[in-house]
Design a protein that fits this description.
By secondary structure, this protein is of the alpha/beta class. It contains 28 helices and 18 strands. Helix 21 packs across helix 25 and helix 26 packs antiparallel against helix 27. It starts with a helix and ends with a helix.
Length: about 725
């Protein structure tokens, strides 16, 4: 009767809410929510508390907004964007003037927003809210306008429709974030993103209640922020692609309006080649090999250039630079990186080695700690707090430093036990193409972890990381979204919200909202395929094939194209089109499992000789699931013949030909397996052997992608006895 526990919970609370809310009942003339409509009630992140009532708040074009209290002026912009987005979705022309202003004084307006005080876009600000919808009115109450912004994100997602038009369901929602730091790191150094691209990400992040955008501004591949005190940093280290300070101020303002902090990262002492193109004297290199001149690194990995920690001129330089950046970025935190210093330049520099011996610094880690302490003192002097990656967490590092863990949870918990505030990024690396559910179930604070209540408070939350080695403006949306929405729920919602099936149900819903706000994670797929195949070609067969692919996981792609890859490598191939989490493959795997389970139960019932009353329903279920499986398998089996003409006209697609054939052959195996299962026909050893050869061959990555329906097809094959 119920699809999932979440729906059951909502329905169970329906009765209680109806009894305590006399305005939410059938006597109002409003129609009740149907079971189907309950299933369409999808919000992400899931709120902490939802109570459904009876009835609907009907959306009409005459609806107005009234804002009261002492909120920041950003609430008016947020309400205006909400109205526009609602208009775009419904076609209703709300508020013909298009903007909500303090001059809107209709205290009986159907949409009421009450903000008790002006919020600050800082760590720990109150983001809680209550949302009450009756058939007559929508009311948002929040301590701060930032909480009201989060409420508007939820309200927008509640938009629903029936035969009578658009509506919001009657409900009460009380909500607050689980963690105060919920972020996305965007690497703008390896591949640069324009202001417009970053603004779009801010719009999308706001929808799912993310409150930090961490910009990785410097690395071996580029220095992406204007420095007026040291202009050669951006002039020579960026290929002309950088944010001017005017642009950055505009981005900070734009983020502030959405309740999002911007945290800058300047990676030091390693990952710093771009610093030395204009200022080689600050590097640790010596001699003809390592002493420069330096060039922008076009490859990825752990570069050797590293800042010189024993020169006083370096600290004078950093003092001036971070004073400038501290004045530019209003957030209280500056990230110093600190990761992946291979120590080669330090080991080959005689002066540095002598300094280490004289100061009892036996290892490169000890020397880096010396550097980090001095750099931290500079940043602290300019009124900022320091954060960095795991590698900066060594004995004696100041307790004020925030440790961001990318190497694993144990590093996070070790730091928390010692009283350091921490962030988790391990398990949230979007660039390695893990499926959504793996990120979703990556719990920052599982019940099993041995941390006291006080120690748990040191875990501020987490950040997903979008490293851009294989990502550019063309495919960045499909690499972040919609998976980021699931990660946002892990950071916002209670730890008990873990139903993967329900997460995917709601994720499919929010995907359309993301597209409305400008994401191209779906719409850019046919565009990229047309570019590969030619604008005059029918790309349907190519899309059918691509829809069941995923880019290879973890760091296999770098291993495959190691000798040809550079920052100019065209990210326009099949691997760049394929999604990190194929929806069709996921659905096919689900149907396969249901089919095999139902078929097994039906056969066991017949063997037992008991004619269960449920046999007819089991037969129906088997037939329904089989119909779906056969449809897809026949489509994939015949698709290779349709793809071949496209491949022949486009040499770049030659790399997928064997992959497409493998899918066709594997699909034929799946059809044969279903036929044998239902007829009870045993397979020969020869069939099993040939099937295993076909499947093993099909599992090999090609075009830097994997066929993600193969596990389910293999499941069908193995089920045949």
């Amino acid at each position: 009767m119920f699809r999932n526990a979440a729906t059951m919970l909502l329905l169970c609370t329906l009765r209680a809410f109806s009894q305590t809310n006399p305005t939410a009942n059938q006597s109002t003339g409003q129609s009740a929510l149907t079971q189907q409509e309950l299933q369409m009630l999808t919000v992400m992140p899931m709120p902490h508390e939802v109570r459904l009532g009876t009835g609907k708040f009907r959306l009409v074009s005459t609806a107005t907004v009234y804002i009261s209290g002492n909120g920041h002026s950003r609430i008016y912009g947020a309400a205006s964007r909400f109205i526009r987005n609602l208009s775009d979705r419904t076609g209703l022309n709300f508020m013909t003037e298009g903007y909500v202003t303090p001059n809107d004084t209709n205290k009986s307006a159907p949409l009421q927003i009450i903000c008790r005080r002006a919020g600050k876009v800082v760590l720990g600000e109150d983001e809680s809210y209550s949302l009450k919808i009756t058939p007559q009115q929508v009311q948002i109450i929040a301590e701060t306008d930032i909480g009201a912004l989060r409420a508007l994100s939820s309200l927008l997602q509640l938009t629903a429709a029936d035969d009578e038009g658009y509506y919001f369901p009657v409900l009460t929602m009380n909500d607050k974030p689980r963690f105060p730091w919920r972020g996305l790191l965007l690497d703008v150094s390896r591949h640069f993103y324009s202001v417009d691209v970053v603004k779009k990400q801010l719009d999308l992040l706001s929808l799912v209640k993310i409150n930090v955008l961490h910009l990785h501004l410097t690395d071996d591949q580029g220095f992406r922020i204007e420095s007026k005190t040291y202009p050669k940093l951006h002039e020579l280290g960026s290929d002309g692609q950088y944010f001017s300070q005017t642009e950055m101020k505009d981005l900070i303002r734009y983020a502030d309006e959405r309740g999002i902090r911007i945290v800058p990262e300047f990676d030091l002492p390693g990952h710093s080649t771009s610093w030395y193109i204009g200022y080689p004297e600050f590097s640790s290199g010596t001699g003809a090999t390592f002493g420069g001149p330096y060039q922008i690194d076009r490859k990825w990995g752990r570069g050797s250039p590293v800042m010189n920690p024993i020169k006083e001129e370096v600290y004078q330089f950093l003092d001036v630079f971070f004073k400038e950046m501290s004045e530019l970025f209003p957030d209280e935190y500056i990230h110093i990186g600190g990761d992946e210093n291979n120590g080669l330049q330090w080991a080959l520099n005689p002066e540095i080695q002598a300094f280490m011996r004289a100061n009892a610094l036996p290892t490169k880690e000890a020397l880096q700690n010396y550097f980090n302490k001095r750099l931290s003192a500079i940043i602290t002097k300019h009124g900022k707090k320091v954060m960095g990656w795991d590698e900066i967490f060594v004995e004696g590092v100041p307790k004020s430093i925030v440790i961001q863990s990318w190497q694993g949870k144990e590093a996070l918990y070790k730091a928390a036990r010692q009283g350091y505030t921490t962030l988790l990024s391990s398990g949230y690396y979007l660039d390695i193409h893990e499926p959504t559910d793996k990120h979703y179930l990556n719990e920052p604070l599982p019940d099993s972890v041995k941390l006291s209540a006080d120690e748990r408070k040191f875990v501020l939350g987490g950040e997903a990381c979008m490293w851009s080695e294989y990502v550019n403006a063309g495919n960045v949306d499909s690499r972040i979204w919609p998976r980021m929405a699931a990660i946002a729920e892990r950071f916002w919602s209670p730890a008990s919200v873990r139903d993967v099936d329900d997460m995917y149900r709601r994720l499919d819903h929010i995907s359309s909202w993301l597209e409305q706000l400008g994401s191209t994670h779906e719409t850019n797929v046919p565009l990229m395929l047309r570019r590969l195949s030619g604008v005059h070609e029918d790309i349907t067969p190519l899309k059918t094939f691509t829809d069941v692919l995923e880019t290879v996981k973890e760091y296999k792609r770098g291993q495959i194209i190691r000798f040809t890859y550079s920052s100019f490598y065209p990210l326009t191939g099949i691997a760049d089109v394929a999604r990190p989490d194929s929806r069709i493959a996921r659905q096919f795997r689900s149907v396969t499992g249901k089919y095999l389970n139902a078929l097994k139960e039906l056969k066991e019932s017949k063997v037992s000789g008991k004619n269960s009353l449920l046999d007819s329903s089991k037969i129906t279920l088997v037939e329904t699931q089989r119909e779906v499986l056969v449809h897809w398998l026949r489509l994939w089996k015949g698709n290779h013949e349709k793809v071949q003409p496209i491949i022949r006209k486009n040499p770049r697609l030659a790399e997928i030909e064997e992959h497409s054939l493998a899918l066709s052959l594997a699909s034929q195996l799946g059809l044969e397996a279903i036929d044998r299962l239902e007829r009870g026909v045993a397979v020969t050893p020869q069939w099993k052997y040939i099937a295993s050869l076909i499947l093993e061959r099909a599992k090999q990555p090609r075009a830097q992608t994997d066929i993600m329906v193969l596990p389910a097809i293999e499941q069908l094959v193995k089920a045949v006895k």
